[in-house]
Write a structure and sequence with these properties.
The protein is built from three helices and six strands, in the order E-E-E-H-E-H-H-E-E. The chain has about 130 residues and is an alpha+beta fold.
């Protein structure tokens, strides 16, 4: 990454933990990453827990980003769709560790959204991102 995206913290909002209030993207090529679940190479969903599925979904998102010529620091926005918000909240510590494995310690602008279901009924989590490759 030749230019860094600027993480913005709004003084009038609570301090962000695990996300950024806003990200000002550096000039570059925008990549819209399609939703990634815990889909294994054979097309099946792998993992019984939200943590296991988040791990593979994150790996898949990073693979798509690499294929487009980017890396995790290029992410400026990420939406996390989960079918069980309570399970997501209960797993925050483990999810933080998985996050750092795939994305490091940098957080884009993010939202976690509870949904009734995902396209594959076995999926518990889906990640949709936007990256700007500088």
């Amino acid at each position: 990454m030749s230019a860094e995206h600027e993480i913005v913290t709004a003084a009038d909002l609570p301090a962000p933990i695990g996300y950024a209030h806003a990200v000002v993207a550096a000039a570059g090529r925008t990549v819209y990453l399609g939703g990634q679940t815990a889909q294994a190479p054979d097309g099946t969903i792998f993992g019984a827990s939200i943590v296991e599925q988040f791990d593979l979904a994150a790996r898949n998102l990073v693979a798509a980003l690499h294929a487009a010529g980017g890396q995790p620091d290029d992410l400026v926005s990420l939406q996390i769709f989960v079918t069980d918000l309570a399970a997501y909240r209960a797993s925050m510590s483990e999810l933080g560790s998985v996050w750092r494995t795939h994305f490091g310690r940098r957080y884009p602008a993010m939202a976690v959204l509870g949904v009734a279901g995902l396209f594959d009924p076995n999926a518990l989590v889906e990640l949709v991102g936007i990256a700007v490759i500088t």
